[in-house]
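2024-03-11 09:14:02 INFO worker-7 job=invfold-0412 stage=load source=structure_tokens
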């Protein structure tokens, strides 16, 4: 009984740390991406070290403690977003645009072949 309880506690702690680690990576990359867009003149990595590190760590720790809710919710969110935003069939405009791009690339390659084919 005690061994089972210890094993469950250890598994919970391991999942807590893993979830917190993944959450920290997500929060860190989100902060750096958003900070780079908002303030292009500043170094987003340095700003994260100064301002964003502690909030990201605390939020990740909370994610880790709540992993029985966070992990399934995140997996459901990712699956739903993949299904919802799956690539729909191309419209006529997209097909024409893609065909024009392919034709332009073919012409460019033919021109470069002609340059080298003069020998």
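2024-03-11 09:14:09 INFO worker-7 stage=emit residues=119
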């Amino acid at each position: 009984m005690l061994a089972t309880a210890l094993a469950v506690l250890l598994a919970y702690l391991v999942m807590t740390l893993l979830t917190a680690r993944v959450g920290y990576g997500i929060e860190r990359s989100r902060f750096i991406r958003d900070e780079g867009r908002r303030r292009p003149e500043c170094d987003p990595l340095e700003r994260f070290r100064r301002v964003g590190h502690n909030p990201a760590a605390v939020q990740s720790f909370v994610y880790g403690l709540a992993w029985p809710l966070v992990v399934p919710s995140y997996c459901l969110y990712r699956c739903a977003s993949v299904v919802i935003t799956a690539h729909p069939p191309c419209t006529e405009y997209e097909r024409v645009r893609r065909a024009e791009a392919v034709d332009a690339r073919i012409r460019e390659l033919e021109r470069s072949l002609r340059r080298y084919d003069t020998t």
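2024-03-11 09:14:09 INFO worker-7 stage=report msg="The longest helix spans residues 2-38."
2024-03-11 09:14:10 INFO worker-7 job finished
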